[in-house]
Design a protein that fits this description.
50% of the residues lie in helices and 13% in strands. By secondary structure, the chain is α/β, with parallel strands linked by helices. It has a single domain (9-170), classed as Rossmann fold, CATH 3.40.50. α1 crosses α7, α2 (37-45) packs across α3 and α5 (109-116) packs across α6.
Length: 180
């Protein structure tokens, strides 16, 4: 079943793949609203992502994230940038795939670590003795989930504008923001 024309667009992918930056560009080009899932989570919880991880661990954060995805799935004409692991829970993956269009931004572990920097603010990467090794391990576990997206876009060595253009075209939007 094809999602409705105004169904949300979910951007998924590994940390530092560009979901927020590209999501804002896509939303602007097609005239839709933009939301970052982490912002929805922190607003609902009244805590930062790091505070949620510290108080409730990754599992607690993932519960908050699933709640935010359920809410986001009901939106119309919205581009939603998700967290890197949001799509890696079967309940979230199934909901996003059925409720809207899912676009995976593919990034290599090397590129993700270079973009994120040494102190990335990402709880699953910061403090690791070998951030690149940790990123490679985490990414390899997530690739099978990302590969299930409706559209997959490579990001290494590309500008945010190039990536956004590929998404807009790949999802069938014309220059004026309407679906072709």
């Amino acid at each position: 079943m094809q999602p409705r024309a105004d169904a949300p667009i979910f951007l998924v992918g590994f940390m530092a793949s560009g979901k927020t930056t590209v999501g804002k560009l896509v939303a602007s080009r097609i005239g839709w609203a933009f939301a970052d899932l982490d912002d929805l989570v922190t607003r609902a919880a009244g805590l930062s992502v790091a505070e949620i991880f510290a108080a409730e661990g990754e599992e607690g954060f993932r519960r908050h994230e699933s709640d935010a995805i359920r809410e986001a799935a009901t939106r119309s004409r919205s581009v939603i940038a998700t967290g890197g692991g949001a799509f890696c829970r079967e309940e979230n993956l199934s909901l996003m795939l059925s409720a809207g269009q899912v676009v995976a931004l593919n990034v290599s572990a090397e590129e993700a670590v270079a973009r994120a920097g040494r102190h990335s603010g990402r709880p699953l990467l910061d403090g690791q003795a070998d951030p690149l090794g940790a990123a490679r391990t985490l990414l390899s576990a997530r690739v099978p989930f990302y590969s299930r997206a409706h559209l997959r876009v490579e990001t290494d060595g590309r500008t945010s504008n190039e990536i956004a253009s590929e998404i807009v075209t790949g999802l069938g939007f014309g220059e004026a923001g309407g679906r072709a």
